[in-house]
Design brief:
Oligomer: single chain
Distance between the termini: 59 Å
Number of strands: 9
Number of helices: 7
Radius of gyration: 23 Å
Largest sheet: 3 strands, antiparallel
Strand order of the largest sheet: 2-1-3
Strand content: 15-25%
Order of helices and strands: HEEHEHHHHHEEEEEE
Amino acid sequence: MNRKKKTINLTNELLDDIDMAMNDQGFEAEYYLDIVKNEVTFLSDFLEEDIYEEISELLENDSDGRFRDIPHRFSREGWRQMERFIISLDDIDEKTRDLLMITIQGRGAFRRFGDAVFELGLREQWFEFRDRENRKEILDWLLSCDLISDADVEKGMQFLEERIAKIKQREEDQANMKKGARVRCRDNAGHDGQITVGDIYDVLDDRDMQIDIRIKDDRGKIIWIPKSHFELVK
């Protein structure tokens, strides 16, 4: 009798969890993809004893391939990733590219590189490059484990592109939350009694690198409040 091929249900959440597991540089846990539960699980000395024993027993008795070891993403690969990003920048001058190459040499490379791309206004571009490479690595690994199809690889990349597009749209909308605009409350956590989810407010002013806006709240008071609580009314 032919066994049914084991596959997983591809979701952004699962791919994010696998990414987190691959990026764990502490090596204080061993991560596994649980194909039955469609989730990431881990084994660590920090777990409660009964949970540790339960997971250990499942792993030791796994004769059907329920669990797959999730590989670590080593720091040297992170260095190569920064190098590939710098090489990919075809819209900056050679001097700037050389300066970026210098930042990734020696100890403290990740911190220096992070500071440099922020100062050059390349941070979001770097994040997108890194996220695309990491997502492709995860999907290629799942494909090599025969857990997804070629079509799933495209699907997983599309998930990421949709997320990037939403983030860009959100950032654009927040940049347009200026005096005279109207915003709708999407979240009132920490501001209950001041703003109401679903209600619309007039933007009276904005400040602090476009992080906060000034509105008249439900009590009639003029307050500063983070833009993250609102969505732009178009």
